[in-house]
Specification:
With about 400 residues, the chain is an alpha/beta fold. Among the domains are: about 140 residues, Rossmann fold; about 150 residues, NAD(P)-binding Rossmann-like Domain (Rossmann fold), CATH 3.40.50. It is built from 14 helices and twelve strands. The strands form two sheets. It has a seven-stranded mixed β-sheet, sandwiched between helices. It has a five-stranded mixed β-sheet with strand order 1-2-4-3-5. Helix 10 links the parallel strand 11 and strand 12. Helix 1 runs parallel beside helix 3, helix 3 packs across helix 14 and helix 6 packs across helix 7. The two termini are about 35 Å apart. The site of nicotinamide-adenine-dinucleotide has 24 residues, from helix 7 and strand 7. Nicotinamide-adenine-dinucleotide binds next to helix 7 and strand 7.
């Protein structure tokens, strides 16, 4: 493991937070260790009959405040180190937003674009059956992340239910509506990123109307963030995907329609940029919403935005973060900015448990109220303790998990 590994970064953040909170060495021992780590071999029969093996993981970092909760990622770079670090982040995120959950993460080291739909289904079902003993609505509830979507969640729910002998919708969130999904879940992470952006603009005294935004990533988070920002009156000037960035489009929905029809961002009349050029645009807000390590020692010096809102998990390295801080950029950290997804996943789980489903309006209203409470708390602690929003968010999240540990005590 190198010093730059995501796990070392997450552990260094935790160490700093424990010191700021004045917690003990015993707290460091309990909080820096995942509760349960499962590595599985996932065999896949390809459509041509060949058999291939893939590495799969499920990490339950904490179950102190409730069942663990976290996404399932399909990406070639998935490994144990990254999965533990993301499960740790989920733990602080659920505590920060005061959801009754611990934190988890899972995934398979695979490029889903190389799989046919039937191969994806077989891989998902086999992965689910390998991790089946440790998941469940009262134990650990997976959800979509990079490279997975509601189709994968439907297959996971079905595999779990077939094994249980009855329908168990609450085993995963991010499901299709007809299988017990929640209205508003698809757009929830983006809706939350947009609320966080609006509040950061307020704190910085910048008018929302016409505020300019560049978004790295045009997937589930990036797209819905762009749509929500436009509806609030902001101007999305550039977006990117893995192949590069684009600017000069008339509206996000025009670009999206082109993307759906052509699977590329080459809308006629627009201009292409590199991903790095997007990061360095003269805008009010920069939103990294793709993968980790976008804003680093080498890219941070060129950032001209006054506000960075972390739609992705871990998009800023510690060195990049320090450079942004020195420049006076307000960074809204991932565990706050992208928590809309897990907040509405929580609503989905509650609805599944009660077999009673809410209107889209109720979902939006409750999302806003939970997120706004967390934003105000982060702002308050940041002001009173004179720390960054990231430090503040971590202090609240880690502090709540430590308090729960203290109250439950150590068995035996
Ligand atoms: P996704 O797979 O739907 O989309 C990812 C996007 O990033 C795609 O547009 C892809 O082309 C683009 N991308 C990949 N590599 C890139 C690169 N090098 N440069 C520019 N763009 C690149 O994934 P998603 O669900 O939107 O997740 C994005 C991030 O948000 C991840 O860090 C994820 O953990 C985090 N997140 C997701 C959710 C959720 O509800 N989906 C919730 C919280 C956090």
């Amino acid at each position: 493991m190198t010093m730059e590994s995501p796990l070392n970064t997450a552990l260094a953040q935790l160490r700093g937070t424990i010191d700021k909170l004045g917690l003990s060495e015993n707290d460091w021992q309990t909080l820096s260790t995942p509760r349960r780590v499962m590595q599985v071999a996932v065999p896949l029969r390809r459509d041509n009959g060949d058999v291939e093996m893939y590495d799969g993981y499920r990490v339950q970092y904490s179950t102190t405040r409730g069942p663990s909760k976290g996404g399932v990622r399909y990406h070639p770079d998935v490994d144990l180190d990254e999965t533990i670090s993301l499960a740790m982040l989920m733990t602080w995120k659920c505590a920060l937003t005061n959801l009754p959950y611990g934190g988890a993460k899972g995934g398979i080291a695979v490029d889903p674009s190389t799989l046919s739909a039937t191969e994806n289904e077989r891989l998902t079902r086999r992965y689910t059956s390998e991790i089946l003993p440790i998941i469940g609505p009262e134990r650990d509830i997976p959800a979509p992340d990079v490279g997975t979507d509601e189709r994968n969640m439907a297959w996971m729910m079905d595999t779990y239910s077939v094994n249980a002998g009855f329908s168990v919708p609450g085993v995963v969130t991010g499901k299709p509506i007809v299988l017990g999904g929640s209205l508003g879940r698809t757009s929830a992470t983006g809706d939350g990123v947009a609320i966080a952006t609006r509040e950061a603009l307020r704190v910085r005294g910048i008018d929302i109307n016409g505020a300019t935004v560049a978004i790295q990533g045009f997937g589930k988070v990036g797209y819905w963030t762009a749509i929500a920002l436009e509806s609030m009156g902001m101007k999305v000037v550039a977006v990117s995907d893995v192949h590069g960035a684009v600017t000069g489009f008339p509206s996000v929905s025009a670009l999206w329609d082109h993307f759906l029809a052509n699977r590329n961002l080459d809308l006629p009349g627009t201009d292409r940029l590199t991903n790095e050029e997007l990061l360095h645009l003269e805008v009010d807000v920069l939103i990294p919403a793709a993968l980790a390590d976008a804003i680093t020692e080498s890219t941070a010096p060129g950032v001209k935005a006054k506000i960075v809102v972390e739609g992705a998990n871990g998009p800023t390295t510690p060195q990049g973060d320090q450079i942004l801080q020195d420049k006076g950029v307000l960074v809204v950290p991932d565990i706050l900015a992208n928590s809309g997804g897990v907040i509405v996943s929580y609503f989905e789980w509650v609805q599944d448990k009660q077999n009673y489903f809410w209107s889209a309006g109720e979902v939006k209203e409750n999302l806003s109220s939970i997120l706004m409470k967390a934003i105000r708390e982060v702002e308050e602690v940041s002001t009173s303790k004179k720390v960054t929003w990231r430090d503040s968010a971590l202090m609240i999240g880690v502090g709540r998990v430590a308090e729960a540990h203290h109250l439950r005590g150590l068995y035996p």
